[in-house]
């Protein structure tokens, strides 16, 4: 435990903490919460010494560590295998190079600022407070990202004659089925042992409103699911015929999570994104880090030596180099560490062996905005029954000539494997075929496709870890300190990467 | 029926219509749908003649009629009682004058572009296709308006010890109560007559996912309602203790509609707004209308004469003037028509007598963005139990120094009456007291308040009509053609105003 950690815990116990942290006992294992401002203040009062720190990987966690050390004027070195920073925080736009193991291509979108594709993380939750704090500190402008839009489609294979239905039809018919069944049970006095009697009338009133039931507690359609065309303006709104949600019931293993997606902890109907691309966060960090990052430096081995650890890497010219440091911050994905000769402790080594990453991938097209003009879809996601899973509509640039539509966000294992193995042209053809199930006109309007399979991407080899983190990631392992979203329960989220960076800062000895 | 209408219906019956209109039979009474492009095309082929048209009122419906006539080069005249166009489409910003019957004040927001207050309409639904069409045609940039945000508050008087709870706690506990009650009823075989037997297991699976139930089909809290502080990053997420939704049940008369607000037809979680203020739509129309609008012209009487109708009005200098026209488009609110001497047909006159308008009002403050820094609220609405009903957080300018928070959107009758009668200072004091129930720190950060009661506003005298429109608004009444949102089932929405304008265009004789 270093000085700052000790000071921090002392401050906790003397109850000087900001209110945000005051209600929780500290779990020693977790090193959470971390009070960044206090940490910064304490470090600024330390004497300026030579600090022998090496950061491996210039993704979000590595950049965050580097940024905080830079603010303090603390020395460090940094190795990055790619030719650019950011890791999976990658925004493709005109001219971006897209390298995978077996191919190199370029993004051919026009040059317009609004034509970009966040091929890695693409949304920020309001409770991802660490990311939001840096966005504010780095003057990164945020705008809403529409994540759930009831005017998009669900294409549930096996239901509704395989015809896509609107999200509002699905949600409304589900509420109608649930509410009408329970309301009838209450009215027939079947559940009086489950509900205090005084609630019966209230429950009936609530269910009628919740499910938009008729006076017999039946669900017979609702204008919440959409009004008939040409009704509701000069004549009263007429509900369209209701969908029968029981058609979805046999398909819940696949669809339950998708239907309740907007309810989940890290997803909300409206989220946030940086104006102009998620890599504004990368650029924000980079602007404030001295030019210490050695790009094109692929780590080959990491071994303990007397003075700490020695890292062997190959530079752009293919020359093998070595670097030693007393403390090494290891942010590389577990899949990448599998290929590196290391001497980490047994639990870490085992965890690297066990690594299980999603085969996430995305494909996007520049396109005329047919989803706006034809379907009145402004942002949000349509759900496919096929491999490509999600279509994302842009949340900005409404009404412009063109936009970028994500024609597939694949994150389920086998689908991701298949996507990885397709050629670029096969990915385009397959995506268009799948999009046409929801938007028959898609091929007419889309062009300039680009895609990435993270599984097939060097120095990532997968989307994010599906395993929960082991507790050993929370502790120093000799000269090694581990960071990266995979070392947290926020795997796949930038918030996890930054939280892990803060933990690494706490573990680093700067005495 | 004029020539265009006849042509239009002919085209309908010969099945040359765009697909959007192809599935609906035309109800002759409603004059809906209106194919704007066909109307425009037909008119362009008409000979250029002198057309004797007078439009009363330069709100959205009057401006839309004027815009379409201007595009065709058709002559018209226009009277507006205010000194500016737009009617209730009003955006307050630095220096805006706010006139009510008993007071005149000025908006004191700083000059920044993002500091504005849509004191009238403030959101556009994705299915308000007529408004969206004009936004596109007039190059009005749109951005998302976050209408429902699960991180805002519900302050339900009488429940939870009168302590505000987060929307996500409310929604999640409601789903939990409904799902757990029904799931137990299914498991106990109590509702087998209500559901086909083959669905039982599926329903249990669905309800477990829908309500986030435990393995005993109980709702015992959910991380959807928020995780415990400091859990979910280095330790698994822990659900906060769940709220008991039965506390809300006795209060549903007031709260059911509010809780299910985001489900309703014209509301969605994410909607749209023009960047920089709703009055961009007004400016868009005005840019394309010749300077024919006579402002400061208060209509006093409307009477039939041989050549059509004679309108008497008072100009800015107090001089009484007269103007005659063959056709008069009357867009004035029914409340305003009550004060005008007219000779409309009996049903219209009766409807004007019966006019019943909401007493809507709003108050806003410039403020430091404490809701973002303290509560991580980015856009959306909090619901108060007191008069001021809704707090709106801005959906743009995230992270900036200041923003505009709507400290009250009042639309319930008695509350609106009370708001109308308060002095400006009383409105501010009352709003702060009410905001402090949800945000105790509100008074510390807010300043530069401005407010408007539409009830107390000359030439509006209310928010919008609460009565359904009578069918007579769909027909010509001698020289009179009626328009305005109050003549449609979309009362209070700009979409209704524009639909009514299109109907007026159809009824106008341009032969």
UniProtKB/TrEMBL annotation, chains A, B:
Family annotation (Gene3D superfamilies): 1.20.1440.240, 3.90.660.10, FAD/NAD(P)-binding domain
Keyword set, alphabetical order: Auxin biosynthesis, Signal
Record keyword DNA-binding present: no
Domain Amine oxidase: from-to ranges: 60-504
One example of a Gene Ontology biological process annotation: auxin biosynthetic process
Superkingdom: Bacteria
The keyword rRNA processing is assigned to this record: no
GO molecular function, one term: tryptophan 2-monooxygenase activity
Pfam (any one): Amino_oxidase
Enzyme Commission (EC) number: 1.13.12.3
Associated pathway: Plant hormone metabolism; auxin biosynthesis
Reactions it catalyzes: L-tryptophan + O2 = indole-3-acetamide + CO2 + H2O
Signal sequence extent: 1-27
Enzyme class: oxidoreductase
PANTHER family xref list: AMINE OXIDASE (PTHR10742:SF342), FLAVIN MONOAMINE OXIDASE (PTHR10742)
Similarity-based family: Belongs to the tryptophan 2-monooxygenase family.
Name the record gives this protein: Tryptophan 2-monooxygenase
